Amino acid sequence: MASDYSVICKLGGYVNSNPEIISSYPSLDQSLEAEILSKCFPLGSKYGEFIVEKHRKYSVLSYVFRINQIAERDDLFSLSVLLNKRDKTEIYMPVLKSLIDKLDENNILTQDILTEYQKVIFEGINQEQDIDIENVLIDFSNIFKEIKSKILKEKPELKGSFL
User: Which of 114, 162, 127, 131 is nearest to 1 (CA)?
Assistant: First the structure.
C-alpha cells in the first residue's frame, strides 16, 4: 500500500477566505489541482474529522485539523493522501491523526513545518518508517504495525462441509 500524492490545503481564519492548496508532493499538475481541492477540503469540513472521497482512480483521505492563531480565528488545514481505491483508508486514518497530534503536542504544528517536511512525511507514510521532524520522532513503523494487526486480521480457514 502506498499513496500517490500528499496534499495540504488551508482555509484561513480571516473573513472571506477560501480553501486553497498550499502544497503537494509530488507536485500536482494544474488540471488535477483544480479538480482535487473540493475533494481534499469539502465545504462544511470541521476540524477533527476524516473525509473520504472518490476521485478518478483514487480514494482521497483527508484529515481536517486546526492551527491556532493569535490575531484571527484559527486556520483550518487538511492533510490528504491520494490512495489506490483498493487500499484500506482505515489504516491511514490513525497514522494521519497521530502525526498531527504529535506535532501539536510538541508545539511544532505550523504551516511552515508541514510544507517543509511534506516530502519526509510522504516517504515515511509510503515506506511505513519512522521520521524525525524538528527532533520529534514520529513512530510510523509501530503505528502501522498496530493498526494492521487490528484491521488486516487473517480470515479463518474454513474446514468441513456445509449442507
Answer: 127
